[in-house]
Amino acid sequence: MPLSQPDQTIAEIASCDLLSCPPTLPIREAASRMMAAGCSSIVVRDEASGVVIGIWTEADALDASLGRGDPKLPVGQAISAGVVELPYDMPLDQAVRAFRDRQLRHALVMKHGAPIGMVTLTDIVRNQGLESFLIVKRVRDLPGQPALLLPASASPQQAMRAMREQGQSALAVVLADGFGIVTQRDVLRWLAADAQPATLGDSCRRPLIGVPDSASLLQARRLIQQHNIRHLAVFGEEGELLRLLGFDDIVQGIEHEYLHELNEALRQRDHALQQSRRSLLLADKVFESTMEGIVITDRNGVIQSVNPAFTRITGYSREEALGKTPAMLKSGRQPPEFYAHMWQTLQRDGCWQGEVVNRRKGGLLYTEHLSITAIRDADDECLHFVAVFSDITQRKQAEERLHFLANHDALTSLPNRTLFLERLQAAVDRAEAGGHGVALLFIDLDRFKLVNDTLGHYAGDQLLIHIARQLQAQLQPGETAARLSGDEFTVLLEGAVGESQVAARAQGMLDAITALSGTDGQQMFVSASMGISMFPDDGRDADTLLVHADTAMYRAKQSGKNGFQFYTADMNARALERLKLEYSLHRALAQRELELWYQPKVALDSGRIVGAEALLRWRHPELGLVPPDRFIPIAEESALIVQIGNWVLDTACADTRRWRDAGLLPGRVAVNVSGRQLKHGDFTQQLEDTLSAYGLDSEDLELEVTESVAMDEAGGMVEMLRRMQALGIYLSIDDFGTGYSSLSYLKRLPVRGLKIDRSFIADSTRDSDDAAITRAIVSIAHSLGLDVVAEGVEEEEQRRFLQGLGCNCAQGYLFSKPMPARQFEVLLAIQASQPALAH
């Protein structure tokens, strides 16, 4: 790293206008001439011979001002040292060393024995070609003394004495608003003017120009040149003055740092040479043993060398490849434009990398990751190309598989929710631009859980696979079927022209689903419910269309299943109303909005109350009494039924305890429990704790479960019922006859009573089928030793019919409607005060 331009000499940077004077000139006059010329020195010549006697400098002026010389003394007698002469053709870097080693500030530039100019330390600093070196070196790296500081009230004599004693060419003056500076040039000026200021604050130059100690040497040098100054302040992070940087500091610091860098560079070079010898051997080994294929070509792409990995990957031997071009591996999968762009990039950037599908010698395709680098000489001419490639076929296949799995359902291979929503949104965007329609079909299988519970999950999975194939068979080009989750499927119909066309397609898909008669030898009937939303009428984005199709699907289920429904705006209103109702239900317990009403159970022969059924009511602050059939299904779906069921059980036991203590209740209180409630936690223990808390016997309570819950053998319900039977709890089956009862299964259940569903009682006196069913249920109950309770008795004729069948107990409007607990308590009190009467 040269310190200056290779051919630069001091003659090129020297000042040719020499300021000279005879040796008889008074010191004060010499100082005046130097100030007028802006020079830091004056050449003293013999008047007669023109011989240079010496140089009088600013440092000599400092001595004169301190009283060591008479201002009228001839300058020839005040010269402190002889003149230093340097040849005009001395290279600048040698001049730098001379100034450093001999502590020079000035030197005469001599040519053929005659002075042709003066070179100063200033010229040296300003003309060194060190930008690349100086920019990475900091001012803080330079050695030097701390700044010499004097207060503004100090005298010039104090300043000059301090500068001389400390060997400093400048000092800083502490001012109220910063710093000023006094240099040897100022001493020269005072000497020339034959007058000194009273204090340094009156005459110092301000402001003090400086740089932070983190600044580069290049910044420092440029600032010196910009302001034409010879001293620069160095400030710390807090603004404190650290040093005054002079020309000699820069020269010595640059030399010191440069020599350190040079020695380090030489050490690194020697180390690199040793390493390179090892690297050549290592490179040869790497070339031969690396797993990546390597091809070296000339500038025209002709192969000059390949490594063993090239042969292993491509199947071509070294001999077969030499003299050929890499085009021998082309598969035809990349168009000519691909290779044209590759060569353009190589010519422009000198490198290219990417993925390429090539063909092995045997004809098989493979994917490689390829990097090509151009090798250039000192003139930037391309000599060779080096291509390094690796076989990534298996990795690409794995990536494609992962991408497929991330976007498709693992069971059916249909697109999943993520991919379907992307395609749906893309279809909506195309429809928006093209002005055509889009239809979204949301499909949910009916009673799919029954398949899993009865035939097992494997059969359920096989069914889903068959349905996926049936849906795909119904698709036209450009349409998409997807499985969102569980038994939910969606179909995207793009370009739909109207509801009639969409309805026909929807019915065809439902018919294809119901056509599945079984799987793996298991006969079954499968149906589905479908909701349809249309773009743009039902939504203008994918999420909205999906939500509306889902809403329409639920309406199809409510309408009897195995059908489809188009979305309408009122569906959304009802869905919002349902959400609002669910939100209100969450707070109903805390707000004490739930109530427990009771409907009496009466003996058909006497008409007296023999028990009661606890019925849940919700008194909404705005809607009033909400019918149970509106909020119980919501509680079931949202899992609130567990909390509500616990409250019902606790409240019913509390009421029972009160009525038992009053001697009013002649029988059991029946409480309905859901399957979710029975499966939550240890219900048997909770039941036992509740009875104990209210001091009730197990015979005081009756639990009613539906047929579907009692028949859930897979859910362990039979075992649960047996544990409750062990506690002595009276168990009965509610709404008997509406489910899918198995008589052989029924006899295994630990129940003691059946309740005939009101739907059979309503027409039992007018419909022979209902009468026959009622008669059969009573007969079954008697044969199994079970009690029978008829629900929904509203007519006297129905009472007599049931009594004639041997049914002893009933409840219904004929006897009493459900009523709040306090009213029921009054009814019990009235009965207690009256003797038993035959009906």
TrEMBL record:
Identify this protein by name.
Diguanylate cyclase
The CBS domain extends over 13-72, 79-135, 204-262
What keywords is this UniProt entry annotated with? CBS domain
Presence of keyword DNA-binding: no
Domain GGDEF per the UniProt entry, residue ranges = 436-569
Report domain PAS positions. Answer: 285-325
Q: Does the keyword Ribonucleoprotein apply?
A: no
Q: Any idea where the EAL domain is?
A: 578-832
The PAC domain covers 350-404
